[in-house]
Design brief:
By secondary structure, the chain is α/β, with parallel strands linked by helices. Helices cover 32% and strands 21% of the residues. It has a seven-stranded parallel β-sheet with strand order 8-7-6-9-10-11-12, sandwiched between helices. A six-stranded mixed β-sheet has the order 14-13-15-16-17-18, with helices on one face. Strands 2-1-3-4-5 form a five-stranded parallel β-sheet. It starts with 10 loop residues before the first strand and ends with a strand. It binds nicotinamide-adenine-dinucleotide and 3-phosphoglyceric acid (3PG). Homotetramer.
Length: 578
């Protein structure tokens, strides 16, 4: 029972069809349930002030107006993954927790992918209506088998690897591209990980996408990628619309350059009349479903139970499992910990964006084993759980949609484990006595990856010592603001926030002017510039590299970044958004 006082039981509004299994748990907890399906926006606005909790799927628009009108609301629960229909930032401002169910429909989405793959392979989409129209067209619909074919997966996460496990049963050869994949889980699913998307394209008989829709995946399959695929290749998307350029896919299908497609998700849902999306859906080589990936009885039970349990937990004053917007710290820790939570979260995000950047041609060198060392006064903290959670959140944020990975105090360890991330926390008391600022050091260690094995072998063959390639980021807090004091081999000092451009260059005349000129041409405003020299170098000692860190007013597009690299310009550049 949630309500143990004489106060009336908390009220829960359910304006959409949510599976009854979870709702029973709410009743058992003594909550007062109101299932009112089909409310108009005005009706919702009128009755919401009465409710403590709101449970929705994707149809109810939980706008800022609704949230502002809701005087008692403590939680909005989305029975599913996507929270596109909830104004999460308005909810956060008002202290309303938004929870979802990031795992409840994985199997359903994976099985739907397999269903589309088989439907496309055997022309089920066309053959069924043909037969229903009274035709008997056997020779027109000769298909292909899955056995022995190559299935290429982009995004070897929860859904991607579930698809791989099922496809193994068909005798398919499975390759995947995911620079952040849990290598052990991928190997256990018999998936061969490739370093670049380009390696997948010409090899794929079936090509399926299971990434979040984020900056690095938006439009990731364009005319250029399609042109590199076999004309017989079949493309599947049960993740999110927007990852495939729909106009390019339509053109490739019409030109016979792609064999077919199975699509569950679209750039706009439902599609606009006469839009490219609609033409694609109507195309004879396309099998299409109206976003049914999660629409199974079992998945709906799972997500319903998952979010209803969280509603019970929140109304009882506890932290939920999967809050999209839960704070990483408890109110009583806020003053002391918040600046460091921000620092560590941003260090994690900087790590992923800086060391894992250049995704489309393969992440540079992303690792998953970390030492997180607290120095100075931080070393005597009673609990570092919020800092651990902040690191997991920061590492994953640039490669996830916010609703796909919800990291908080309750689930941080579990999420890290699922993603194959290993974090060893250490305390160093060296600077404690001097009242010195608290430093945090993030050291990414080499795990036994294929590229590492190759490097070790090359070094051994050349008779040299094994290469040391630890990646280090160090930061501190001053006046509640996070700063970076070291990146890799470079001594730095810059504020960690906003949009940054980090360039590695030879420390010679003209580089700063060159980069400034290119950014000026691209209409990018520079707010600060900081040079980070090598940590152990002296003038004229031949160690002449430096980092150039620029604060800029907007994210810089890929073409501009590429234009910076070259003999006149810089060796490497990464764009960071914090
Ligand atoms: N159609 C549906 O009804 C339905 C149902 C469930 C999930 N989904 C969608 O399926 C997608 C996958 O869900 P999930 O639970 O497997 O997510 P997940 O977070 O477990 O896996 C996503 C994977 O994508 C990888 N990734 C991120 N950026 C990448 C990039 N640029 N290139 C290659 N890989 C990259 C990540 O490392 C991760 O391993 C999400 O978009 C989710 O919203 C759709
Ligand atoms: O985000 C999700 O959970 C899936 O895309 C399914 O959404 P749905 O609950 O609207 O079917």
């Amino acid at each position: 029972m949630v309500s143990i006082t004489n106060a009336p039981p908390a009220k829960v509004l359910i304006p959409e069809k949510v599976s009854p299994d979870g709702l029973q748990a709410l009743r058992d907890a003594g909550l007062d349930l109101h299932e009112k399906h089909g409310l108009s926006a005005d009706e919702l606005l009128k009755i919401i002030p009465d409710y403590d909790a709101l449970i929705v799927r994707s149809e109810t628009k939980v706008t800022a107006d609704v949230l502002n009108a809701a005087k008692k609301l403590k939680v909005v629960a989305r029975a599913g993954v996507g929270v596109d229909n909830v104004d999460v930032s308005a909810a956060t401002k008002l202290g309303v927790i938004v929870v979802n169910s990031p795992s409840g429909n994985i199997n359903a989405a994976a099985e739907h992918t397999i269903a589309l793959m088989m439907a496309v392979a055997r022309h089920i989409g066309e053959a069924c209506p043909s037969l229903k129209a009274g035709k008997w067209e056997r020779s027109k619909f000769v298909g292909v088998e899955l056995k022995g074919k190559t299935l290429a997966i982009v995004g070897a996460g929860k859904v991607g690897l579930t698809v791989a496990r099922i496809a193994n049963g068909f005798g398919m050869n499975i390759i995947a591209y995911d620079p952040y994949a849990n290598r052990a889980l991928a190997a256990a699913a018999s998936v061969t990980l490739k370093d670049t998307l380009d390696e997948l394209l010409p090899a794929a008989d079936f090509f399926t996408i299971h990434t979040p829709l984020i900056a690095s995946t938006k439009g990731m399959i364009s005319a250029t990628e399609l042109a590199k695929m076999k004309p017989t290749a079949r493309i599947l998307n049960v993740a999110r619309g927007g990852m495939i350029d729909e106009a390019a896919l339509l053109e490739a299908l019409n030109a016979g350059k792609i064999g077919g497609a199975g699509l569950d998700v679209f750039a706009s849902e439902p599609p606009q009349p006469d839009s490219v999306t609609e033409q694609l859906i109507r195309h004879p080589k396309v099998v299409a479903t109206p976003h049914l990936g999660a629409s199974t009885v079992e998945a709906q039970e799972n997500v319903s139970i998952d979010v209803c349990e969280q509603v019970i937990s929140i109304l009882a004053g506890n932290l939920p499992r999967s809050a999209v917007n839960a704070p990483l710290i408890l109110p009583e820790e806020y003053r002391t910990l918040q600046p460091f939570v921000l620092l560590v979260e941003r260090m994690g995000s900087l790590y992923t964006q800086h060391y894992g950047s250049n995704l489309r041609v393969g992440g540079k060198d992303f690792r998953t084993t970390f030492d997180l060392t607290y120095e100075g006064s931080l070393a005597s903290l009673n609990t570092t759980k919020p800092l651990f959670a902040a690191l997991v959140k920061g590492l994953l944020a640039p490669i996830s949609a916010p609703e796909d990975v919800t990291v908080n105090l309750v689930n941080a360890e579990l999420v890290a484990k699922e993603r194959g991330i290993l974090i060893n926390e250490q305390r160093s008391r060296e600077n404690e006595e001097e009242g010195f600022s608290s430093f945090v050091t993030l050291r990414a260690r080499i795990s036994r990856s294929a590229s590492h094995a190759r490097e070790q072998a090359a070094a051994a063959a050349a008779g040299g010592p094994p290469p040391v390639r630890d990646q280090i980021i160090q930061g501190y807090v001053s006046a509640n603001t996070p700063y970076i004091s070291r990146i890799g081999r470079f001594r730095a000092d810059f504020q960690l926030g906003g949009n940054l451009l980090i360039c590695r260059n030879f420390d010679s005349c003209g580089r700063i002017g060159f980069v400034g000129g290119k950014l000026g041409k691209a209409n990018v405003n520079i707010s600060f510039m900081s040079v980070a020299p090598l940590e152990h170098s002296a003038p004229g000692d031949g160690n002449d590299e430096a980092l150039m860190i620029l604060g800029v007013d907007k994210t810089i597009d890929e073409a501009t970044v590429q234009s910076l690299i070259g003999d006149e310009g810089v060796l490497e550049a990464s764009v960071i958004t914090l």
